[in-house]
Amino acid sequence: QVQLVESGGGLAQAGGSLRPSCAASGFTFSAFPMSWARQTPGKGLEWVSGIYNDGRDTYYADSVKGRFTISRDNAKNTLYLQMNNLRPEDTALYYCTKVRAGGVVSKIEDYAYWGRGTQVTVSS
Fold first, then answer.
1. Which of 45, 89, 96, 108 sits a CA distance of 20 to 30 A from 34?
2. What angle do CA 86, 107, 118 make, to 5 degrees?
3. Interatomic CA distance for residues 69 and 59, integer angstroms
């Protein structure tokens, strides 16, 4: 069955960096777009970034553009999110998601599977 297991979150100071990753199994990783989404009590669920199958096409929410970089290693079945210049408002539970075939990485309704999330906390 499909499994998405996030790791690499944690505590960082404002201006610092973290690199969450997502180990995928149970499906042909290279055949599907993938995305990161995040959830906070105040803002709810928010799309963060997405990447298409071969990794060449990447997209970012305006709130993280220029600070976050999404990437994937199809040989290792792993998705990454390099987070630089972190801000307190980046504090959230970050989810790795598998986008349905033919789906749009920025549309939450196109996410077919979700991991359990990894917590990122940024202190000011």
1. 89
2. 40
3. 9
